[in-house]
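Collaborator request, handled under Task 6.
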Amino acid sequence: MNYLKAFRWSLCLVFTFSLAVGCTSTRKTTVNPNSIPTSRSLPPLTESVLNIPVKVVITPFLKQAESIAPKEIRSDGWPEYMISSCDFRYKYRFVRSTFQFSCINNRISVAMNGNYQIAGSKTVCVMGQSVSPWINGSCGFGNEPMRKVNINLISDLRFTPDYRLQSTTRTEKVVPIDKCLVTIFNNDVTTEVMDSIAASVNLFGTNIDKIVKEMNFSNYLTPIGEKAGKKIPLGTYGFMKLNASAVRMGPINFSADTLRFTAGVSCYPEISSDSINHSVTKHLPPLTNNTTGDGFALTSNAIYDYKTIDSLLTRTLRDRSFEVKGEKIRIEKVQVKGLEGYMVEFKITFTGTKRGTLFLKGTPDLEVSTQQLTVPDLEYDLNSSSIVLVLGKTFFNRQILENLRKQAKINVNELYLKNKQKIDDQFNREITTGIRLKGNTSELRLNGLIINRDNVQVQATLTGNADLLISNIPGR
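C-alpha cells returned to the collaborator:
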C-alpha cells in the first residue's frame, strides 16, 4: 500500500542519510566517549587512504623553456675567429631545432637536433709568433651543407617536504652525426666545438633549474591546507573535516604536454552536525616522495543530533501523500527522538482528509554482512488516544503492523545506488582556481550504527576513484 511505501522511505532516510553525506565528504567524527553506551561502540576507525592521479598542464612552462633557450650558439667574437693556440684559430655556429620532451620516473629528457658549421685557420709559429700566412679551411659554409649534431639534456625532478619542485639539469650527450675534418691541414676540430656547445647548453640547464626553483605552489596549497584544517560546510548535511595525517608523491611522468603523478593522502575524516572548530590547522603534513596503489577508501565516523535529522526528514518528506483506508493523507512534519535501550520514536504529523500525529517506535538494527537495516520490533506508540479515533481501530491491527515491519527494511547498497549521482557530484567540482577534482564512487558500506538518546552515530566506508587536474603552472 502507498502508506507503507511512504513509511518505508521515512525510515530509510532516518538511518542512512548520514551515510550519503559521509560519502560526499572525507572525514571522521571525534566522538565523545561519554555519549557512547558502554555496551555498544563503533568499530575502531582505520586510516583512510586516497591515491589521486594528478595531471599538471605544463604547456606555459614548455613555451617559457623554449623561449629562453638560444636558437643559435656561436663562438666568442663571431664572425671573427677564436684563438685556440698560436698556430690555430677557429669559429663555429650551432642552430638548434625545437625541443622534444619526455619524462619517465622523475627524469626529464630534452632532445634537440641541430646543425653546425666550422671554419679554421692554420699557421706556423716560432717562439710563440706566427711566421707564415694563415691557411683557411671550413665545414658547412658556402654551398656545403651544415653538419648535423644531436644534443640530449637530462633533468632530475623531486618535490621537497615543503611542496617545492626542484630540478637538476645537465647535458647528457652531444653527438656529432657528421664530423668536421678540416682537410687542408688534416685537423679534426669536432671535439673542441662539441665541448663549447655542451658548455652553452649546460648554462641553459642552469637557468631552467632557477625557473623551476622559483615556482610557487603556495597559491594552491595555502587554501587547500586551510580548508583541510577546519570544518567545511556541507549545506544541509552538516560539516566535514579532513584531518590529513600524511601526504605522498609518486614518480612524475610526462606525455602530451602534461605531467602526471599520483598523490597519496592518509587521513581520518570527520562528519558531524556541529559547526564549531574545536581545533584548526593551516598546513598540510610534510611531503614524502613515495606512494603506492590507486583509488580511495574513506572510512568515516559521523555523528548527528536529532534536530538535524528532523530538518532533513521534514524537508525530504513534507507534502508526500498516500492513502490510508481510502483517505488521503499528506505528511507535514517528521520528528525523531532517541529513547532508552537504543530505540527511537517516530513522530509523523499529517494533514488531509484526516489530521493527526502518528507515533511509532522500535530498535534499528544493522546486519553488517548483508548490509540490511531493519526495525524488527516496530510498534505503535499510542501517546495520543485520539489517533485511534482519527484513523480507526482497523488501521492498528496486527496484520498491518506486521506489514509495516516487513516494509521497514533497507538495503544499503540499493539506497547508495539511488543516491550515487548526488554523491559523485561532490567529487566533480573546482576546489580552487586552476584546480579541478574529477571522480566517482564505486561502493558504500556501513560498518556500524549506534542509536543514542541525543544523537545517531554511524561508521561508513566509501570507495572510488578521483583525479586532480592543475590547468596552469603556479606563478612566481
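The cover message to the collaborator said: "Residues 70-213 form one domain. The CA atoms of residues 387 and 393 lie 9 Å apart. Please let us know whether this matches your experimental observations."
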